[in-house]
Amino acid sequence: MINSNMKLFEFLENHMLNHLLQLCKEELDLQDFPPIQIISDEYTVGYGTSFGQFDGENIQVASKGRHPMDVMRTLAHELVHWKQRVNGEELDGSDGSSTENDANAIAGVIMRKFGQKYPDYFINTIP
What is the CB neighbour count within 10 angstroms for residue 36? Predict the structure, then answer.
């Protein structure tokens, strides 16, 4: 009963992920990506966060129980941290820090552009 819907969501999420990575590559002027892991069997990833993390080398994003667009926003946020590191910035993950505020703001801009470029993703991924 849910299998057909699950396959549709997996299909959409794979396309969404590829399209978001391409947009992030363009927007952030990235040459490459760190290893990225989408975690679907846990609510939390390292450091006690329930959304995602960039540990300096790898990105982990939790997807269980989350809307796919929120997962994409978290991935964009963590890719901004990757770009910050590539640029030699010292990363400070504390709430309100300049690196966190920048990652939030830039990820928001990326997601607006993503929504303009792929508006169906916002509609067709509603559970």
Answer: 17
The range of the structural domain enclosing residue 116 comes to: 3-30+67-124
Residue-level pLDDT at 49? 64
pTM: 0.84
Rounded Cα gap, residues 95 and 36, in angstroms: 23
Residue 41 lies inside a defined structural domain of this protein = no
Residue 81 domain-assigned (yes or no): yes
Please write the tens of the pLDDT for every residue from 76-114: 999 999 999 999 999 888 888 999 999 999 999 999 999
Residue 38 inside a domain? The answer is no
> Which residue from 109, 86, 90 is spatially nearest to 100, judged by alpha carbons?
90
